[in-house]
Amino acid sequence: MPVETIRTIDQHLLANTFFPPEAEIWKPGNSVYEGVFIQKINARQFIVHAQRHMALDPFQLAEKANWVFDSLEGAYKKWSDLENGIYD
Fold it and tell me: What pTM was computed for the model?
């Protein structure tokens, strides 16, 4: 596991709720951030979110999923797998 990458994400999450920073959980009326992102809940809990919008409507959520982890390393592995098209 790339320790430097995890350290960089950890540093980013000290001041931000989501990684990457432009990510956000969809709310009705907003455009859908399409992709995979990590949310820091507290020092020991992280959620990996995946969401996508409807094909012809970027303001309508089509699908979402999330996974809870007790470590950033676990969340990073899931995030990285999903970003690389590995769905298990």
Answer: 0.90
